[in-house]
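Because discrete structure vocabularies remain unfamiliar, we turn briefly to a single example record, giving the amino acid sequence and backbone structure tokens:
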Amino acid sequence: MRSASAKRDGLTEEMIDEGIENFRESDKFTESEKIALEYSELMQFEPEKIDGAFYARLQELYSDEEIVELGAFIGFNVGYHTFFRTLDFYPMFSPDGHLVSQEESRRIYGDRPTSHLRGAMARATGEGESEIESGSE
């Protein structure tokens, strides 16, 4: 999410963290963005809940082509993060959103990689590591 084009389009670290931690209640996102974030969350944690009723909700805001593109993008990114966790890669970004090397990331985050997906505080403090260890992320 931290691509140069996303930042040019107005995406901020605060929005990223809000999207991870509080998107349902946030006023920073449109209804179409909220359902896209919900789609992403379900795809990663509860794919069995993506049923006809959920697709009908998506179709209220997206065309079939957009739903397929969004689903493919989400699926790729879920797989990408899962794969990187198996390699014990460190986050590619500092807590303030700057791209860093694996060596620099190790200095920032300590001896253990932390989640790419749990927000700035979790990245900076190591919160959520028990979720990673138990496989519930």
Observations:
- The helical segments are 4-8, 13-21, 31-45, 52-59, 64-86, 102-109, 119-125, 129-134.
- Residues 106 and 112 are 8 Å apart (CA to CA).
- The mean pLDDT is 80.
